[in-house]
Structure formats: structure tokens, C-alpha cells
Amino acid sequence: MLGIAAAVLFFIAFLINAADIATNDVLSSTNFMLIGLAVLALHVAGIGNGWGGRGRGRRR
Fold it and tell me: Exposure pattern of 4-35 as b/e (b: 16+ CB <10 Å)?
């Protein structure tokens, strides 16, 4: 899920940069890209993937 969120943030950053949209300092394309990188790092680290440690099979 975080990978999809990162892709959406990268796409928004691309649109702001490609369309040369004038935004304030908070909503700049660089900030969207950095937030996307942080979300992507969380995804790669395994946070927010939806799989619990106990749900991987039955133990008898």
C-alpha cells in the first residue's frame, strides 16, 4: 500500500514539475518527491505491508 502511495506522490511531483505550476514552498515538487522517497523507504523496510508475524501458517 505504501508503494502505491509513493507512486502517487512521485506522479504529483512530476506533474508539478512538468507543467511548471507555480506553488508555494510547502507544495513544491521537491517536497512531494522527498515525501515519496520517505514513503518508499518505509515500504521497502516492510512497514505497512499488511502481513502480521503470526499469520504465516499454523504451528502445532
Answer: ebbeebbebbeebeeeeeeeeeeebbeebbeb
Note whether 13 and 32 are within 8 A (CB): yes
Contact 36, 13 (CB under 8 A): yes
Rounded average pLDDT over 21-46: 85
Predicted local distance difference test score (pLDDT) of residue 37? 92
Instruction: State the sign of the Cα–Cα–Cα–Cα dihedral 28, 46, 4, 52.
Output: negative
The three-point CA angle 6-38-53 to 5° equals: 85
